[in-house]
Design goal:
It is a single chain. Helices cover 36% and strands 15% of the residues. The chain is of the alpha/beta class. A hairpin with a 4-residue loop joins strand 2 and strand 3. Helix 3 runs antiparallel to helix 10. The mean pLDDT is 96.
Amino acid sequence: MYSADDPTGFTALESEVRSYSRAWPTVFDRAVDATVYAEDGTPYLDFFAGAGSLNYGHNNRRLKQVLLDYLIDDRMVHSLDMLTTARREFLETFHELILEPRGLDHKVMFPGPGGANAVEAALKLARKVTGRESVITFTNAFHGMTLGALSVTGNSMKRGGAGIPLVHATPMPYDDYFNGDVDDFVYLERLLEDGGSGLNEPAAVIVESVQGEGGINSARAEWLRGLADLCKRHGILLIVDDIQMGCGRTGGFFSFEEAGITPDIICLSKSISGYGLPLALTLVRPELDIFEPGEHNGTFRGFAPAFATASEALRTYWTDDTLERSTIAKGALIESHFNSVVSRYSQHELVAKGRGLARGLQLPDGELAGRVTAEAFQRGLLVETSGPDGEVVKLLPPLTITDDELRRGLTILDEAFAAVLS
């Protein structure tokens, strides 16, 4: 299958829908911590981390040993939603280390194993609870690629892939969408209170506290508090999609912690297993837990080996605030570095964005940003773009990355920016 036009041997066999392999045209073989290796042994520093699925790095040694022991002992692997020891261990650990210390009493629902299914479950449950259909979403939101999740996603290219009208969702401006020229929620509040607005009474609002795919747009804590208050006053359920920004990405375990809000429903996936194994959670306040048995299910809900690694990840990284403080400090280092890049290339009007270890540098257009990430790849760094036009160079390194690795990656980025912008 190999040819001069297809040196990796994949083009002849795999669908055209593949995307990351086009940006990084090499064949990867091994990965350890914050480094991945091509099959020829070439190392690449990873500022991508499985799109936020590998917060604790590749093949984390401690989690790997737990996984190996689990499999060697012939423990349950596939169990649907049957009761297993691994399931009990995870539920008890998650309650003890994550929910209880944060004053959350949410019930844990296991939908299908991906983030989009966590969102689908949240949307279905909100509509069942309220008896309403409409959901408020936000500009530049991304919630997944299934039809329900796409209906509350902003990106026109991704929505276009649905092939049918995406209905029962109404977009509203995200924080700072109008660059501070319009008061928060003035438009939404007016529509909700005006009987002639034509806005159907919403079942829920779904929001990301930091929009990852949308361009590393970070909502202010006061904006999130205002949104939570608006939902409470109007009897609207608040869903926080913490699939990419949860599990410590912004510092605290949940990205909304600094705002001091309590969502009605929380969606988690990506790094919840700790090892890159598929797992997703939909957390619901007890009074909302009204699905009938089997009303939302899936063959691979609650993947048992993921329970084992998830429990160990929680015990390893969330019994104290060491990782949280480290993430905030490393994020401050990137912020300072990006501010210097903004100053150095002031003629390009760059914008530094983000919180914790979810960081972005917005360029004038997607063409320039794409060239930067291509230059970085040639120098041994994996970093992607995001935003509606791919105009943001997006950093999601493992939370466990060392300071030396982080600085080395930023140096490579400096070289890439210089090659493109100087």
